[in-house]
Amino acid sequence: MFTLKEFLEKEVKPALGCTEPGAVALAVARACQEIKVKEEIDYIEVEVSDSVYKNGMDVGIPGTDGARGNAIAAVLGLICGKASYGLEVLRDCQKEDVLEAKKWIKDKRVSIICHPEKSGVYIHAAVFVKKQATICIIEGDHSNITMVSKNGKTIFEKKDFPNTKDKKESIQDMIGKLSYREVLSLVDDIDQDDVAYIMNGVKMNLKMAEYGLRDDTAAGAGFGKALKKIMKENKLEQELGYLIKSYSFAASDARMGGAFLPVMSSAGSGNHGITAIIPLAIVGRKKGRTDEEIARAIAISHLTTSYVKSKIGRLSPVCGCAVAAGSGAAAGLTYILEGNYEQAVLAVKTLLANTAGMVCDGAKESCALKVGTAAFEAYLSALFALDDKGIDSAQGVIDASIEVTVNNMGRVNCIGMKNMDSVIIDIMEERAETARKEYKENRISIGG
């Protein structure tokens, strides 16, 4: 068993930008630590799983004025990345670094390859100096470096990963073996240090939302600003649920657009962290709850998010924001509204009945829509549960038991949707190839 403090340390961390390209940058930065003179590096080659490839293709990279994708993240990992920063690896990124990174890409000195046999979190980053390679591998978790080698000689290796007899289970593995009630019981041991850490995450994520709501910022697709404007013009009732939705929209808008601000992640995802935290922070403040009451509910949200993720996987064909973090928010909101365990279970099952099967089609601007939807539906599910309404009986993928329900979600994701990522990647690559052809034809037509 593990403590709440250990859980928070492993599963709830600050992250700068989308965690998939962030992990790519981290792997490259760590490999580069073994190179004395970075200027001598000739080429970067990064192999990634289908999920990392998909999620990093179209998402904005913080501090790059709109640059997107795993390739620029990889090069920035070389130029300015610091592995010691973890998932904030690009914290020191400057404009001149971005210009240099774009030149690397133009000169075709970086390649991103989708490994057809890898899923979940997997990154194999190789940097080449005169045909000699330094390699860093990340797998299982976005910051979990399992191997570093130079010219075929192993410099670092996690002996207990992935399939040795003395393998240490991850916290997420352990969560998956517990009952839901056992998972939530960890909150009984919350202390003031935990409260302070959780409330720091509230501060971070609300700051991102407020950035996304500002009139003077370019924040993704701008759904948060648009909903705020609609409410201000009285075209939509200014109700708490829509306030939750506008803030959740805005935080994800800004993050997906590449805002140079960190968020507190949950279960390896910044957007999960937005979904798991912001609705509870807003409702808690509106209802006059203390920091300790808000932190306790958010801890429940994080624990529930990781409990669902233990079944559907770290990265998945279904939208983890809607399914996992939405479940977390539903449970936490029930508690912050003074509901009990049975009502929290009802809220989670109702939320899952609503969002099961929502597809993850990569990290990009439209993720804000799914984050906002998850946050709003979590609030509605909690309100239903407090009135003892919701999906409680066995129907569809929902079971009378919360444990079987979450297991069913894992089966839908891991078995029923196992080819979804490859289909989505094909669609995205076909679109990219069409755009490249149109660009070339246009240059020829104007004498380029």
Automatic annotation (TrEMBL):
One record GO biological process: L-cysteine catabolic process to pyruvate
Serine dehydratase-like alpha subunit domain sequence ranges: 86-425
GO MF entries: L-cysteine desulfhydrase activity
Pfam family, one: SDH_alpha
InterPro entries: Ser_deHydtase-like_asu, UPF0597
Coiled coil: none
Superkingdom per UniProt: Bacteria
Family: Belongs to the UPF0597 family.
Protein name: UPF0597 protein GM661_17260
Species: Iocasia fonsfrigidae
Organism ancestry: Bacteria, Bacillati, Bacillota, Clostridia, Halanaerobiales
